[in-house]
Structure formats: structure tokens, C-alpha cells
Amino acid sequence: MDGYEPDWGLYRSFLAVLTHGSLSAAARALGLTQPTLGRHIDELQRQLGVTLFTRSSGGLLPTDAALSLRPHAENLKAAADMILRAASGLDEGVRGTVRVTASDVIGVEVLPDILTDLRRNYPDLEIELALGNQVEDLLRRDADIAVRMVTPRQDALVVQHIGEINLGLFAHCDYLARKGMPQHIEGLVEHDLIGIDRDPQDRRMMQSLPEAFHKCHFSFRSDQHLAHLAMIRAGYGIGACQVGVARRDPNLVHVLPEFSFVIDSWVTMHEDLRNNLRCRVVFDALVSGMKDYWRIQRTAAMPF
């Protein structure tokens, strides 16, 4: 290495090639030409004094050196994104970018209405929405605000408790017309069940369910809860779903309504952002919208 520190643009190109596996795909993702991206990789390799990729019939393969550099380059990207978000909020007014993370079901089924209202009220506000069931690290600023289904454990966070979200078993009416309605938990063994795969958090939750449920066999397994919902709606079988989401679809029928369980919900952000106007506006809107959803799903969960 010649002592010169490579600029962020070279690392950005490096991450794009790692992610997409070829110069052409990475160039399209970044809006650059393939020759430009190739020069970036060559320059980074020259300055670092290492080989980062080898060519194969399937594209570019990262070397051990590239894989060891990846987490550091990702930290650079997170810092660059944070600088851009912070700079966009220095002007007066509610404008700029706020990055929100949420579970897949909440992000797809609940947040769109909340964020659409927010956009109408603040047209200069931009939202980045990261979906997934993994908990983002707010202290490291992987996101500005999180809608979480687990109790926050980190300090230095602004935390607003929303309440318990009710879940139950649901199936499409067409499925129940074919297979019949189970009359008790033990009867689920005769049905096509939609359930978890390998996620350790979901597996821990399973331990709290009645013993009879542990004997059931899942004929469809996924760690993506949005996939569970899609399969329920398609009539594949019986699966767990948030009551508030299921009640929006008249074709979904509550199965064994006496059997239910809950997950807790929170909205959180880093305490350093409490005086950031755009983050505060988004935080308050998410809290208000999630509490409305909580009230609606509580009403839907009441027995008839």
C-alpha cells in the first residue's frame, strides 16, 4: 500500500460488486458505466495492494481479502448514509430523509397508510423503509427509527410503548370449505399448517404455546411472516396472523378464536435525534398510527 487513503467512492463500487457479483450489474445499480466501475476496482486494488476479485464463468468472485474488508466497507457506507441524512435536516422545516425499520408484516400491512398521511402533510420529507425481522442497531445508526416487536434492550434510546399485538390462527374460507373447521387444538394435526422454519426468536415463542400445538406438523415453513400471510390468503392452510391485519380481509376466518398469543410493540429512536425536527415528526406519526392500529386490532380481537 502506498500510504494514500482510498476515497469512499471506490469502496462504494467495491460493495456494489460484492453485492451484485459482476461489473455490469454493479454499474447499473450505481448509475455508472462498466468501464468506470472497473477502473474503481483496479484503483482500489492498487492502493490497497491486494487482489479483491477473481474472474469465473459466473462473474466476479470475492477473495478472502475482499470478504475481510466487507464489514469495514459496510460501516463506511452506514456512516456516509448517516452524514447525508444529518445534512439533509440542517435546514429549517421538515425535510430530508428518515430511515425507518420495521418487521415485514407491519411494514407492508400497517405502515403504508401512516407514511402516506405523513407524506401529504410533509411533502419535502423522504422515507427509507428497511423491512425485516432482525433488530437493527439504532445506536450504530443502522436506522433512525424502529418499529419493534421485541422489548428494546439498548440504553440511549427514546422509547414509546405501543401495546400488545394480538395474533390468532386464520385460514381462507375456501380452505375451510375443503378441509372443514377444526374444533380443538388437537384437531390441527389433520390440517395443512403454515409455520416457522429456523428463526431462533420464533422457535423460542413456540415454546410458550400449548403442548398439543407442538405435535402439529407444518406443511409449509418460512421465517418470513409476510410469506405466512400470503399463503393463508392463497388458501394453502391454517397459519398465525395478526388479528388486526386478518380482519381487513373478509375471506379470512378466525380458527379456534379461544387460542391466541401476543407480541409486544414499541417505537424507538436514538436519543440524539429527539431534537431533530424531521425525525421527531416521523417518530410521533408512527407512534400515533401504531396506537390507532393497536386500538383497532384490540376491538377486532374481542369475542363476538
Could you please describe the fold and organization of this structure?
The chain is an alpha/beta fold and 304 residues long. The strands form 2 sheets. The chain has an 8-stranded mixed β-sheet with strand order 4-3-5-10-6-9-7-8, sandwiched between helices. Strand 3 (96-102), helix 5 and strand 4 form a beta-alpha-beta unit. The mean pLDDT is 84. The radius of gyration is 23 Å and the shape is globular. It has helices at residues 8-20, 23-30, 34-48, 64-88, 104-121, 173-179, 200-206, 211-214, 225-234, 243-246, 277-301; strands spanning 53-56, 59-62, 96-102, 125-131, 145-148, 157-172, 193-195, 218-221, 238-242, 252-270.
In short:
The protein has 304 residues and is α/β, with parallel strands linked by helices.
Question: What's the topology here?
Answer:
Elements lengths: L7 H13 L2 H8 L3 H15 L4 E4 L2 E4 L1 H25 L7 E7 L1 H18 L3 E7 L13 E4 L8 E16 H7 L13 E3 L4 H7 L4 H4 L3 E4 L3 H10 L3 E5 H4 L5 E19 L6 H25 L3
Parallel strand pairs: 3-4, 3-5, 7-8, 7-9
Antiparallel strand pairs: 1-2, 5-10, 6-9, 6-10
Helix pairs in contact: 1-2, 1-3, 1-4, 2-3, 5-11
